[in-house]
Amino acid sequence: xxxxxxNPDGLHPTPGYxxxxxxxxxxxxxxxxxxxxxxxxxxxDGGLEGxxxxxxxxxxxxxxxxxxxxxxxxxxxxxxxSPDREELAAVWxxxxxxxxxxxxxxxxxxxxxxxxxxxxxxxxxxxxxxx
Length: 131
What we know:
Elements: E1 2-6, E2 20-24, E3 28-34, H1 47-65, E4 73-80, H2 85-96, E5 107-112, E6 123-130
Parallel strand pairs: 4-5
Antiparallel strand pairs: 1-2, 3-6, 4-6
Helix pairs in contact: 1-2
C-alpha cells in the first residue's frame, strides 16, 4: 500500500492537512462516524473537550480492531455542533496534539453543524483508512 499526500502549487497553505491524498491499497476501511459515547453507551462528560477525547479513544480502538493505525488514515470529516470558529479550531488543535494526530495529515474536512445524532452530542468524526 502507498499513500501520497500533496499540496499542489496554486492551492492555499493548510494548517496541517494535505489537499490531495492519493492511495494505492488492497483494503479500504470505513469507520462509522465515531461519536463521544463511552463503552457503556453514555455520552462522555467534559463538554466539547471531553467528548473530543472520547471520540479519539473510540477511533483508536476501531482502527486497531481493523488492523490499522492513525498513519493509515486517508480521509477524515470532523463534525462539530457549533457555529463558533474558536470551538472548531479548539477541536482541530486537540486532535492534532493527540495520539490520533497522524490521521489529520491526510485529506480532511472540518465542519460546524447545527446538530448531531445524540442529544447533547457535540462532535463526531468520519474516518477512512487504507491497508
